[in-house]
Amino acid sequence: MRGLLLGTIISLLFGALTIWLMQQDGGYVFINFQNFTVEMTVWVALLLYLIVTASIVWFFSLVKWGVGAGGLRNWWVSRASSKKINTTKQGLILYADHEWQRALEVLTKSAERSIMPEVDLLFAVRSASKGGQIEEARSLIEKLKSSNPKFYLLAQKSLAEIYIQDESFDLALEIITPMADERPEDPGVLRLLADVLHLTEDWTSLQLLLQDMHRFKALDKSDMALLEFDVYQNLLSEFQADPDLTLQEQKEQVADLWDIIPKRLKTDSHLSCFYFDLLVSVNDCEKMIPIMIKNVNNSWSDELVLRLGETGIPKPEFRLAAAEKWLVKYPENSILLFTLGNICCQLKFWGKARDYFSSALAIEPNPKIFASLGEVMIQIGEVDAAHDAFRRGLILGNQEGFSK
Q: How confident is the model at residue 63 (pLDDT cuts 50, 70, 90)?
């Protein structure tokens, strides 16, 4: 602010001095050339000199700007580049709008004179693959490889995506496997490999890949959690013990499978049910009972409660005591009442079983519970009541079947 004020004062003083000098002595300039005569004061001549000099300097600067390294040539190049970028932008907008064919045409044409042809070719490849033009996509990939060797890896990824989309999983693996060996830390390569293994349902190989996917953050946390759950769920649901092994060896197989599951997932009721079913298949479910009861205490699950009432499971007294404690919190849960009735049947507590089944039916009529109640009535000698329970169960079952 002070500098501006000082500059203003100096300018005013200089102007005043100039006017004073002009008033003191205007001076005189006389120019005579052949028949041409010019007369003026010194100050007018000085002003004309400054104007002419400034004009000449400005003119030569303009010429230098126009024909030099910048200026007109750069302006022309910039204008052409802007036009090419706009064409690329148009193609990308079409791609984002899922206009695959139009995007392919615009981007392919733009790549011929684009300042970034690799971008045009890459999205042209994706447009072709998404539009089902596989051969065109392959041709563009080869063009992308030849245009810039640095884009080789990106081109290979694009080709692998095309093979995956075309369900040519063997061809996709031929491309992805060498890339995974060379660059195991590349998130894009890991995602492609996971896609192939998931689509081919190779859960064992995919489970081995999970550690690297976690380490190199191939997916965000939510997607990674979903993939991990899906892998372990399928490993458990599709597992079959080797029939050529002894029963003890089969039990060890099941135990080894459970050991590879992360601790945080072992409390999931859905996975626990699959594991319980496997233990039942190898006659080794006794050790799972305390775990299931603990899981139900931590997080209620009708699935787990229902399995605790299945026949052939040891420790019925222990299971009954645990389940009856849950009645305090869930007195009107028909699944719990049905489970209690089943456990009482295993202990031959027919009176209690009848009461639990009757209470469950009062809350939610179910053909299976009617059948169980009928069996109990036969055991206590009430044949007519048994027939009535069976009849009502059949009627309800037929009604449900008809409604479906």
A: low
